[in-house]
Amino acid sequence: MEELEILQSSEGKEGHAPALYGIDFQVKDGYFALCNGFNQNEIVTNIDELSVNRTVIRENPAKRTS
Q1: What is the pLDDT of residue 25?
Q2: pTM of the shown model
């Protein structure tokens, strides 16, 4: 795993704080995210499909030195 990120809605609506949308995993050979699909969970494998705020919470230390 290269990175672990928290996904939040792009912005809160009507003064509400952004909501947790899911988590994503950047792996050596690709990407996938587990997201809130309201009444079901969604798995996203294309990072370009998401228009949310992404916050890195864990980064592979080897990635930082390369």
Answers
A1: 93
A2: 0.69
Per-position b or e across 10-29, b if 16+ CB within 10 A of its CB = eeeeeeeeeeebbebebeee
In degrees, rounded to 5, the angle at the alpha carbon of residue 45 between the alpha carbons of residues 41 and 17 is 55
Q: How many CB atoms are located within 10 Å of the residue 53 CB?
A: 14
Mean pLDDT by 10 residues, the chain (66 residues): 86 69 90 88 88 85 64
The answer to whether the CB of 3 falls within 8 A of the CB of 9 is no
Is 31:45 a contact under the CB 8 Å cutoff?
yes
CA torsion sign, 66 to 4 to 32 to 54? Answer: negative
Output the pLDDT for position 5: 92
